[in-house]
Structures are given as C-alpha cells and as structure tokens.
Amino acid sequence: MNDTVWLTLRRMRTPLIVLIIVYSLSVFGLLMIPGVDPEGNPYRLSFLDAAYFVALMSTTIGFGEIPYAFTDAQRLYAYLIVFPNVVAWLYSIGTILALFIDPQFKAVLRRGRFAQRVRWLGEPFYIVCGFGSTGTMITSGLHRRGIAAVVLEKDEDVLHRMTLVDEFAHTPALASDVTDRRYLETAGLHDPLCQGVIAITNEDHANLTIAITSKLLRPELPVYARSETDRTSGNMASFGTNYIIDPYAIFAERMFLALSSPVKYLLQDWLISVPGSALREPIDPPTGRWIICGLGRFGSRMAARLEEAGMPYAVVDVHPDRIKGRENGVLGRGTEGETLKEAGIDDACGIIAGTGDDIDNLSIVMTARELNPKLFVVARQENQPNDVLFDASGADLVARRNLIVARRVLAIATTPLLQAFLQYMIRQDDQFAQRAVGQCEAVLHGRAPSLWMIEATDDLAVGIQTAQENGVEVRLQHLSYNSRSETSEHLDCVCLVHERGASRIFLPGEDQSLQVGDRLLFAGRDPARREMLWALCTPDALFAYATGQHLPSGALGRWLLKRRKLQVEESE
User: Fold this and answer.
1) C-alpha dihedral over 180, 186, 192, 195, to 10 degrees?
2) Cβ distance 37 to 43 under 8 Å?
3) pLDDT tens by residue, 69-98
C-alpha cells in the first residue's frame, strides 16, 4: 500500500496545492469583509462559518448565506470566488478520476491487493510461476491436496480467464514479469510459510532466472524448475536447483522402463496418474527395429534410451546435420509414405513421431499405421488443446509434456517419499513390482489412487501415544483396518513406505510396529485416508481396536485405570 499512497500523493500534488491555495484565499477574504446581523450591528464570520460556506459554494451545493444574510460586498466577493473554486474542484476531481483509470495506478493497486492476500493466507503455500496448462494442473493438484498456491503469470488475459473458474477464484494471482525479483518477494518468497518455488513457464531462460533469484535470496527454499535443454539443465544444476524437470528426459526414461520391465512401468504409471482416473492397462512395447521421426530435443533423448536398451533404429529428420554420419539416417519429415518406406517401415516394430509440430506428428502416426498396422506408436504432443486428436489417433503412448511436468512436480512437492519408493522399485527385480501391483489392484478398483503421507507427530500422534502409554504396541494392521467398523474391514489403501529416522521399509508388512515420529506413505481411496486420520487423532481409537477395550473418556477414569495397572504390576 505504500506504493499506492506514494503514487496518489505524487499525482495529486499539483491539484491539491491549487485547491488549498484557492480555498484558503477564499476563506481569508470572507473573514476580512464585515457583515451585519438582523439588528444592524456589525458582524464578522467565524472561521468555521467561512470555511463551511466556501466548501458548500465551491461544490455547487449552496445551502445559502450563513449565519445571516450577506451584505452587497460579501455577495460580490462570493460571486468573484465561485468560479476559481469550482474550477479548482473540477481539476482535482478530474485528476482523481484520471488516476483511477491510469494503467500504472491500477497495476500498483493490484500489486497491493495481491500482497495483502498473500499475507492473509495463513497456511503453507507454493509460488507457481507460469499459469499455462502445466501451471493450471499443478495449482489444481495442490488445492486437491489441501495446499495453497500463489500464482505469477506474465499474460494478464490468462489470469482473467483464471478468475472465471471457481476452483481458482480465491487463489492470489498477479500479472507480472515472473523473472523480476520484486514480484517474487511480493509473492511471499521470504514468508516462513512458503514451501517452495515452482518455475514452469514455457521459456527455459525465464525458469533459469527464477531459479537463480530464488536460490540467491533464500537458499534453503526448494526450487522446482522446468528445463527442456541440456544446457539449461546443467546451468540449473550448477547452483543447486533442487529439482530439474525435463519432460523429454522423463518420458525417455519411462519409455526405457517400459521396454525393460513393463510391470515396473505399469506400477509407476498408476502411482503418478491423476487420482480417480482409469488405470492404464498393461503395455508391452515390442523389441526390434524402431523409426524415430525428428531428432530434436525429444527424439535425441529417445534415441539415447533405445541405444541403452540395445534396440536398432533409423532416423528421419529434415535437418541434414542431424542425420549426418548416421548409417540409417533419412532426410525428410516422416509425413510422406516414401520417406517412411526408405526408413524401413515395413519391417519396423515401432515408430516415434517426435517432431515439434503436433499436426506433423499426427500425420506421421496416420501414415505409418496405414503402411504397417502392427506398429507400436509413440507420439509427441506439444499443445494441450490437441488432446482429443491424439486420443483419436490410436497412438499407444503419447508424450504430453505439460502432464509429465505437472505429475512430476506434484509427486516430488506433495509426496516426497513417492520418489524414494519409485527409485527403489526400479532398482529391484520384477517380483517386487508384481507384489506391489497385486496389492494395489486389490484396493484401487480400477481407478488411480490418491497418495497421502502421514507424519505421526502433534495431532496425528494422539492415537499412537495413548496406546503406548497404556502398554499397547500399535502395528500397521491397526491403522490399515477401519477402527469404527464392527467387522474386520480392511481400508482401501496400501502402505508403500515406512520411514523411521534414516531407516526405510518399502511395502512393509501389517505387523510393522508404529511409533511417534514415523512417516508413512499410502496409496488408496480418499475414504480410507479419512478413516485413518480419524483413528490417529482420536485418543482411544487405536487402543480400542487393538485390545477390544475402551478407555475411560474422563481424565479421572484414566488416572484410576493407570493406578490399577500399577497395583497389578507391583503385586506380580
């Protein structure tokens, strides 16, 4: 608000000076001219009467001559001062109106309101820089997980559309230069409740600038930055960016995982899918010869992963320098049948449409399918509005970079233990993944799971602490069953990770003991989460489920129970 006051005073300085001078001279003149009362005695206006009269006169209200009828001299003076006073008031009012419609002033007002809304959040939040399709998905995902977001977006039209969506109506958002330090600070960069900065604009340089600024001003704050080039990724890594999200590299890694272990790919896809969406069916990419159309940022990463998997491939590209020196390089777009035939489409097992143009990629998919219907097709999609077209194309896998970035950011930011679980799963043999898939299938009922992490501290440690104080060991099975059900009803969830200190157990058994301070990662349905939180926050829920007995509700009753237990122990 300081900027608003300063700008207002600066713009109103001249009008206010003119108004004050004209008003003061008018009042002073009335004080000097004598009048007469009804009895004919001399009378001079008081300062209050003179000020009151001039104010009403200059604003054209005019309640009349006070406190008595004016003399001719007073009326002549009033006639002379009415015009400069009216002009001064109109000048001041016009300046105020011009100020309110001035773009700079409106920008200052928006920034002030934005800063105030950020200060009033009162809950943990992330700063999201960029509100395109990726930013929309990330912000929506944060809201569904009960985490607030503060949005910075350079395009004001995007924010206007944002306010029309009920989900984002109360989200603090500001149209600004997302790389400007001042706006990052206004968005709460130094606020203790800020949990991290998410830089996911479409420009690598902007994301790099945001990451550098955040790390310099607040080094301990996590930064999640999107990068689509090796140069930018290396630059970000050099100064300690916590998480660098390269959508093309991530998809290439997942493609390699699908080639090497379909069951691991399936489990990973289930756990990172949008909660409630239909679970993907198992896929089994064929082994054999592939064709890559487009060897740019996406295609080069896919080529590297195919080489790592030991798969031969041919390359089709319009840039001669990209295919130079490659034994199976073909010059062309890949949208023409002759080019694909030259690349060996007839005996290929799969094709990757990886150009930077969605329409070209769709054309490649359709042409390739006509020439070889048995192909396994991977397509790259750049623009979200083309979702329907790519779904209709029949491609087996579609690399949607916005969705890839959003999934990875949400997974890391909201459920950090998930990344540890996925990395552990990839290092294990297929039996571990098959066991996890079997457990998930039993509780997910064909829908992607919600993920939640429980840290048994503060309010979430009440149930465990009460049970331990009464000599009862709480195990995972006590938390995995509905403590309010008379039957032994298993909750629709799977515990993926149990963490205690530096120790982690993946897919722990139901006999795993629980203690205050433990951290647990679950995948399952939202009703299971609600029941679990109720059991953890209710003092005697876990104790009653584990022992079949209920603790007294009052403090006196619990004290007497402890006394009896101590007496029994002493007698023994």
Assistant:
1) -60
2) yes
3) 899 899 999 999 999 999 998 888 888 888
Contacting residues for 513 by C-beta, under 8 A, at least 6 apart:
473, 474, 475, 476
Q: Is 225 helix (H, G, I), strand (E, B) or coil?
A: strand
Domain boundaries, the chain: 2-100, 123-245, 286-395, 449-562
CATH class of 123-245: alpha beta
- At residue 378, what are phi and psi to the nearest 5 degrees? -115, 130
Name 197's Cβ contacts closer than 8 Å, sequence gap at least 6. Answer: 126, 127, 129, 184, 189, 210, 211, 214, 221, 222, 223, 224
Hey, CA dihedral for 229, 378, 284, 372, is it positive or negative? negative
84: number of Cβ within 10 Å: 16
| Secondary structure (3-state) at 140 | helix
Cα–Cα distance between 153 and 206 in angstroms, integer? 12
Count the neighbouring beta carbons within 10 Å of the beta carbon of residue 38: 8
Architecture field, domain 2-100: Orthogonal Bundle (1.10)
Q: What is the residue-averaged pLDDT of the chain?
A: 88
- Using the structure block, give the residue that is written with the tokens 């001559």: 65
Neighbours of 325 (CB within 10 A): 7
Say whether 123-245 and 2-100 share the same fold: no
For the whole prediction, is pTM greater than 0.90? no
pLDDT in tens, 479-506: 888 877 767 788 999 999 999 988 999 9
Which of 20-24, 57-61, 175-179, 564-568 is the least confident region? Answer: 564-568
DSSP conformation class of 334: S
Amino acid letter, residue 182: R
Confidence of residue 430 (pLDDT cuts 50, 70, 90): very high
Candidates 3.30.470.10, 3.30.70.1450, 3.60.15.10, 3.40.50.10540; CATH matching 449-562: 3.30.70.1450
Q: Which CATH architecture has domain 286-395?
A: 3-Layer(aba) Sandwich (3.40)
Q: State the DSSP H helix or E strand holding residue 226, giving kind and residue range, or none if neither.
A: strand 223-226
The burial class, CB within 10 Å (0-12 / 13-18 / 19+), for 332 is middle
Contact (Cβ atoms closer than 8 angstroms) between residue 224 and residue 197: yes
Distance CA 360, CA 351 (A): 14
How many whole angstroms separate alpha carbon 15 and alpha carbon 52?
20
Q: Supply 198's token pair.
A: 């998410």
